[in-house]
Design a protein that fits this description.
Largest sheet: 9 strands, parallel
Helix content: 25-40%
Number of strands: 17
Number of helices: 19
Distance between the termini: 76 Å
CATH architecture of the largest domain: Alpha-Beta Barrel
Low-confidence stretches: none
């Protein structure tokens, strides 16, 4: 087969592991892939330092990692950079220590940036790397504009067709390959996602149409619905080879190696990713909503529904004169609320000059009908409950949703990155931007253990707390696993 194969398991799979992999996995991944006719291993990203959150080894792919792969792997090594995150004048510093160890640099780029990418490409090519341009969102391409843009691009070894939403069908892919071959002499590549389970058939279509390179990952490990499975592709390619049993043994070892991760993170297409694929919706947003554990499947679909005719835009809460500068109590959904309910109620009776924010409807019975300055965040499964049952003294805050019912105490809360909104972030944004609180007490944010299904929620909330700690004094009045200062509710009675 003339088509080359690039395995990007560690880079694409890092979306689930935060780009950290156990050393045993790394060693054996190299060992078993050395037995296979793979051309490139794309091991990770190369990114600038991110001081606001932890990212693992293959998010940064430091020099010692590159040296290790160069020494131990039989394959060419690739890295990916994100065009939108790096300026052209930063490229040399970012990649200078990779020149002796890395063969291929792939640039992830959106279609609307193609006309500006040439200087970026030239900087990388001048460092003697092979260069690939990974053009995202293939199912949404304006093909005429894409063809005009890439006809002017030079110094690129591969132009990749990236099916970001897993929405492409084989006949469409075939037509695009044919069209792009006519406008640029660069070799073509294909990166599939498996939302509607067409990654395998699409890749075989690409190979049939003499595409030059295709991507895959072990067990399809990758963001959201995942990618084409390396083991499936290799078993098909070598099904008639004399070496097929050697190939089968090696891929079986790789599958066994990554199976515990598959069991833990459970990537792969399900009904929500199929929905995203059929409708060309971004699977990273679907993935975020699914992992938040706040939404039923029907609510995820409604969030992306393009038919807005039956929905109302709510009044923005920021238009109200609510800058009362009062301290705020945020009530979460943890079991500690039940354990300490009498004390919390007594605290509220004694502190009517607080803002009270409920992160959900779970313990809304704590709301006294006379309590003023009261808010409830409405997300996920709360939406249908609140529309049918409300309290007059409560302001209901909808951070990301328009609704099909409009009431005088329904408000929207505009948050910059609406696809990363959760209950805690909404509460803290409301307290800091709208009521202008400086001192925050929280109750019922108990946290989760590492083996809990909601541990990802805990990690997300921990980062949110940390992002606000410079602006606010945040203390917990109930026991918590979060890294917060304690101020027991009983010391306040």
């Amino acid at each position: 087969m003339n088509t080359k194969i690039l395995d990007c398991t560690l880079r694409d799979g890092g979306y689930y592991t935060n780009w950290d992999f156990d050393i045993n996995i790394i060693e054996n991944y190299i060992k078993y892939t050395n037995e296979l006719e793979i051309d490139y291993l794309e091991i990770g990203y190369r990114n600038k330092k991110n001081l606001n959150e932890y990212k693992g080894q293959f998010y940064y792919s430091p020099k010692h990692t590159l040296k290790y792969f160069k020494k131990n792997s039989n394959h060419k090594i690739g890295l990916m950079v994100d065009y939108k995150s790096i300026k052209a004048n930063e490229v040399r510093d970012l990649l200078a220590d990779a020149t002796d160890y890395v063969n291929l640099i792939r640039i992830a780029v959106s279609p609307d940036s193609l006309d500006n990418v040439q200087i970026f490409v030239d900087e990388i090519k001048a460092m003697n790397f092979e260069v690939a341009l990974n053009i995202m969102y293939m199912s949404e391409w304006n093909l005429k504009k894409i063809k005009e843009s890439i006809s002017n691009i030079r110094n690129v070894d591969y132009i990749y067709l990236v099916d970001s939403y897993g929405s492409v069908f084989p006949d469409y892919l075939e037509n695009i390959i044919s069209d792009l071959k006519k406008v640029n002499n660069s070799k073509l590549g294909f990166h599939s996602h498996d939302n509607i389970e067409l990654a395998f058939s699409n890749t075989l279509t690409a190979i049939k149409n003499e595409i030059d390179i295709v991507d895959s990952t072990i067990l399809g490990m990758g963001r959201g619905a995942g990618n084409l499975k390396t083991e499936l592709l290799l078993m098909k390619i070598f099904s008639d080879s004399k070496n097929k049993y050697k190939v089968y043994d090696a891929v079986a070892k790789l599958v066994s190696l990554f199976s515990p991760l598959k069991e833990k993170y459970n990537w792969g297409s399900d009904i929500s990713y199929k929905f995203a694929g059929i409708n060309s919706f971004p699977q990273k947003d679907i993935m975020y909503l699914k992992l938040s554990k706040n939404y039923k499947f029907s609510q995820i679909l409604a969030h992306f529904d393009k038919d807005e005719s039956a929905k109302f835009d709510l009044e923005d809460i920021s238009t109200k004169s609510l800058k009362n500068n009062l301290d705020t109590l945020i009530v979460g959904g943890g079991k500690s609320i039940i354990d300490h309910k009498p004390a919390i109620i007594k605290f509220l009776e004694n502190h009517e000059n607080y803002n009270l924010i409920f992160s959900s409807s779970k313990f809304s019975e704590l709301i006294d009908s006379n309590f003023q300055n009261c808010y409830q965040i409405v997300l996920g499964s709360d939406i249908s409950k609140i529309i049918s049952s409300t309290k007059k003294n409560v302001n209901y805050i909808f951070p990301i949703d328009t609704v099909n019912t409009k009431k005088s105490n329904f408000y929207s809360l505009k948050i910059k990155n609406k696809n990363e909104v959760n209950h805690l972030l909404s509460c803290l944004e409301l307290a800091t931007r709208i009521t202008k609180s400086k001192n925050i007490l929280v109750a019922g944010f108990d946290g989760f253990s590492q083996n809990d299904n909601f541990f990802n929620v805990f990690k997300s909330n921990e980062l949110i707390f940390k992002s606000f700690e410079q602006k606010l004094s945040i203390k917990s009045i109930t026991d918590t696993k979060y890294s917060l200062v304690f101020d027991s509710v009983y010391s306040k009675l």
